[in-house]
Amino acid sequence: MRNFVRNTAERWHFAMEKVMPDSFIFAVLLTFIVFILALTVVKASPVKIVESWYRGFWAYLAFSMQMVVLLIFGYSLAISRVGVKVIDSITGIAKTPAQAVAVVAAVAAILGAINWGLGLIGGIFLCLGAARRVKGIHWPLLVASAYIGAMSTITWSISITEPLLLNSPGWGWSPDIIPTIEKEIGRKLSPMGFDQTIYAKASLFGLILTPILAVLTCYLMHPTPERSRSISPEALEKLAAESQFKLEKPKEMALADKLNWSRTLWILICIMAFTYMVLWFREKPFVQLDLNMYNFIFIGIAMLLHENLARFVESVKMASKAAFGIIMQFPFYAGIFGIMAYTGLLKVVAGWFVAISTPFLYPLVTQISSGIINMFIPSSGGIWMVQGPIMILAANKLGVAFNRVVMAFTAGEVLTNTIQPFWALPLLGATGTEMRNIMGYCLLATLYMFVLVALIYLFLPM
Fold first, then answer.
1. Environment class of residue 182 by beta-carbon count within 10 Å: exposed (0-12), middle (13-18) or buried (19+)?
2. Strands, E assignment, 152-232
3. Whole-model pTM over 0.85
């Protein structure tokens, strides 16, 4: 088993580092693929395709900003004094190297279930804390365990895109295309609560069993002491120093500094934010939580835990570096969706999925297809823009429950993130690790989790 993992890691190193270009290049390549499909399949003219591309290009600016906010404020919370201290101290539970990677995976899973950004960034401090407290940990597996653990629960996280969008009218799609989809499926795209998605019966089994499998896999993968490669104390100290978030209060305070560090302003804005949260939940139950309110909650908590507005602002500046991919790529994903939606290609592709599937197997087809697309579009929101309407139209024709299809769709694209370098970049950068060092472990864990979740959404009731 261990030799298989190491050999697989080397092969994936070649694939990822030598063959796969930047994820933005995939967005451009996919644009041209969809352009050719529209040209040949639905006989749309080049002018029509370009117009459709531009029409979709700016259709999701609000949604793109929601995704940026979700990542940034989860990151901001993780690097607050309280966040770092709590996350770091938990690693003291483990006593042996194998226990340490299991604890890191388990805690990352819990953080990922709360907020996927928190799970990814929290893994940095879990790795540093575990390596400092437990000697002899295989460093590559420790980093992999943080990533594997976070990904094991994000499918059912209250921060994951699809269930949050289903909780809003129109399910997050462009107002231009919603009437077309509603006409095809014969119903309104009304809000669908968490009780039908991440808290459905099958989903609860997934939420419990998948992280258990991930933790057990990480525990069993730890090599023998003579095969382990621990990080040196010097390298660990350097990484810890680079990951620290510090902002010192000026000794001499000018008027601008007094405003920046004003506790009065900080207290008042925190009171205002939490007052509205109370008002919101007086009118709506938690299962109706939407993306805007979820983001607002994390903004409020992050602002509170940073203890003043100066630290909060600086944390957001630091976190913003991790959001560049969303900012740059989402308009191109929206453009791809525009070509598919406004040329008629959307309905044709949905028909292809119907042709190759049966009602029973359709959740599996959906999970596999979203997993494949995720290697090209490493974003829940981006995939939902491009592929989500196709999946729903095909599900309607096959008579498969929408909530089962959406959760299988979500599982496919989230679990394959474990072998997609894009979202691992903050963790890899902060731990001084390369994707090739952890890919073998991630690949094996992904395979196990993918099979388990496929069985859950094929056989268990929603």
1. middle
2. none
3. no
Instruction: Give how many domains the chain has, as a whole number.
Output: 1
Show the CA angle centred on residue 193, arms to residues 190 and 194, nearest 5°: 150
- Where are the strands (E) in 269-349, listed by range? none
Please return the burial class of 285, using the count of CB atoms within 10 Å of its CB with bins 0-12, 13-18 and 19+: exposed
- Residue identified by tokens 């099958």 is 202
Enter the DSSP assignment of 231: P
Q: Which residue is associated with the tokens 């007094």?
A: 258
Residue 198 structure tokens: 């991440």
**Cβ atoms of residues 241 and 235 within 8 Å:** no
Distances (CA, A) of 416 to 202, 370, 450: 20, 9, 8
- CA 152 vs. chain centroid, Å, equals 11
Exposure pattern of 394-412 as b/e (b: 16+ CB <10 Å)?
bbbbbebebbbbbbbbbbb
Q: How many helices (H) and strands (E) does the chain have?
A: 23, 0
Q: Does residue 413 come out as left (phi exceeding 0), alpha (psi in the -120 to 50 range) or beta? A: alpha
Instruction: Report the sign of the C-alpha dihedral through residues 425, 427, 429, 431, in that order.
Output: negative
Using only C-alpha atoms, the chain has a radius of gyration, in whole angstroms, of 23
Strands (DSSP E) found in 280-431: none
Range of the domain at 76: 2-459
- Tokens 């030598």 — which residue? 18
Cβ 218 vs Cβ 210: under 8 Å: no
Mean pLDDT of successive 10-residue segments in the chain (462 residues)?
Answer: 52 49 71 90 92 86 77 79 80 86 94 84 85 87 93 89 83 81 87 90 96 92 82 79 73 83 91 94 78 85 88 85 74 82 78 82 90 72 78 89 93 88 73 78 90 96 90
